[in-house]
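Weekly structure sync, notes
Attendees: PL (lead), two postdocs, one rotation student
Agenda item 3: pending single-chain targets
PL asked that the sequence for the first pending target be pasted directly into the notes so everyone works from the same version. It is reproduced below exactly as submitted, 225 residues in total.
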Amino acid sequence: MKHLVTALVLTAASASASAGAISTFGNLGAYQSAIGAATETVEDFTNTSHFPISTGILNSSTNLPGIGIAPGDIKTGVTYSTPIGNSFFFNIDAGGGFVGGFLDGFYGGDPNRRLNVAFDSAAGAFGFDTNGLMGSNFDITVNFASGPAYSGNFSISGDGFFGFQSDATDITSVIIDGNGDSTFAFALDNFRFTDAAGGNRVPEPAGLAFLGFAALFASARRKHK
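Predicted structure, written out during the meeting:
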């Protein structure tokens, strides 16, 4: 009995060290239904243009009075960054088919230029709006607190929403790369993220192992009474 309980505990620990599984969404309504009651933050990147973001870093602490960005203009929880180089600027622009400001970076011929998104604390889901300014497709990499990263390529057809949900609250960072087949290395708006994975998901393997352990432990207690 002791060895069986130990095995179940080890199974749960092993499963918890793996990355969550990603579900993808091409519709905002379906995404919001999936995240359920999870708290959602939406960043609209202000209503006007601000460029260039010369530091290559944008978050709630950014203070660039020369272009009109003050601490608190960007919501807490996320840091957006990208390499800065010749013929490349990190911007909040306006227009381009987006409502209000949108976040972009010029391609400038450098394939290493892409948007890095780091969460202050692990997220359960995220999503954003984009359009043809980012090109005909983009690559995305999702990094987790543990386990291998998720990578995918998505086609862009007109204005569209792209959402990603982990079955655990374990997303630590994201890389968005527009592949450089247009002027912009990336262009997106209304970046949204949750602090939990939401209620509409299946239990993780670690959770199932824990439930099995709990039931076995309860059974053992009844037998010894």
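Discussion points:
- Helices lie at 2-16, 28-35, 205-223.
- The CA atoms of residues 102 and 171 lie 23 Å apart.
Action: rotation student to compare against the earlier draft before next sync.
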